[in-house]
Structures are given as structure tokens and as C-alpha cells.
Predict the 3D structure of the following.
Amino acid sequence: MGCLTYRDTLSGVARAISVRLDDEADKALRTLESTGLTQSEAIRAALLGEVRHRRRSQELAAEVAALEADEADREEMLAVADLMEALRASR
């Protein structure tokens, strides 16, 4: 059996942090706490939610860039837009 390192020993230990909240952040924290979350649970949920939001935003930006770079897709979108405009105009 190998020996444990400092990192192995502390891998399951939570890290405590200190934050200063402005009025808006304090109100948001109190709102989350009012749902039954503890202060720690609320802060963890907010952090993880923000990370998911940023990742999704990055994924969407990459998807938009890929679509914009696809000449055939852009041509098809223009053709559909032209068709829809022609249908609207014929009413």
C-alpha cells in the first residue's frame, strides 16, 4: 500500500472562504436561504449555477460561430428568409 500525501489526506475536506457581500448579493443570498438552503448550500449552488451558465454561454457562442462559418447553412437561411418574405408579400 502506498503512503498518503498531504493532498490525499485533504482531498475530502471542504475549503472555507470569506466573502464581502454588497447589498444586492446579500439580498440574493437571503432569497436563496429563504428556500431552505443553508448559507453554505446557497453559496455553493450559486457558484455552480454561474459556472454552468458560463459554460453554456461559451458553448452557444462556439455553436453560433460554427454556423456563421458554414457558407451552405448561411445560403440556406437566406433562401428560407426569401421564401418566407415572398409568402408574406403574396397575401
User: Anything to note?
Assistant: The mean pLDDT is 89.
